Structure to design on (152 residues):
């Protein structure tokens, strides 16, 4: 089931299967998509947790989610989930947790394909000497890091 959530100034397209959140996509501010139906209990719970996160009150999510991807991507996403609120890790550091430094580029690719940004905090992963990329734009990445009071 898909719906649109608006939290503060952010708009998201959410996809779930009734048991798990499966996808979160940032929408442009000027997107014409609007919430079209009543929220399911799972969607309502996600909305509450995201509201808490964006208000600086929630640092760890408890909402059930399931990310679909390759075995390697799921391994990277699982490790990303261990990066604490307000902390960062480089692609290289994350690569060491999933097979070795030579996997840094593949880690970056997995970050880019993350279907659940914020829940799986790919915004907390950077290059060793700069912020790296973010599938939803660098301004969004910077906003999320500022929210978490990360110095970059």
């Amino acid at each position: 089931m898909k719906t649109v959530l608006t939290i503060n100034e952010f708009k998201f397209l959410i996809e779930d299967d009734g048991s798990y959140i499966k996808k979160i996509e940032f929408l442009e501010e000027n997107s014409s998509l609007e919430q079209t139906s009543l929220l399911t209990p799972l969607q309502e719970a996600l909305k509450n947790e995201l509201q808490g996160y964006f208000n600086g009150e929630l640092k760890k999510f408890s909402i059930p989610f399931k990310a679909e991807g390759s075995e390697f991507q799921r391994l990277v996403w699982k490790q990303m989930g261990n990066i604490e609120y307000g902390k960062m890790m480089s692609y290289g550091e994350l690569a060491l947790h999933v097979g070795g430094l030579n996997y840094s580029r593949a880690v970056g690719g997995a970050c880019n394909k993350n279907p659940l940004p914020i829940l799986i905090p790919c915004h907390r992963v950077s290059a060793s000497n700069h912020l790296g990329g973010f599938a939803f734009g660098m301004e969004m990445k910077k906003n999320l890091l500022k929210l978490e009071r990360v110095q970059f």
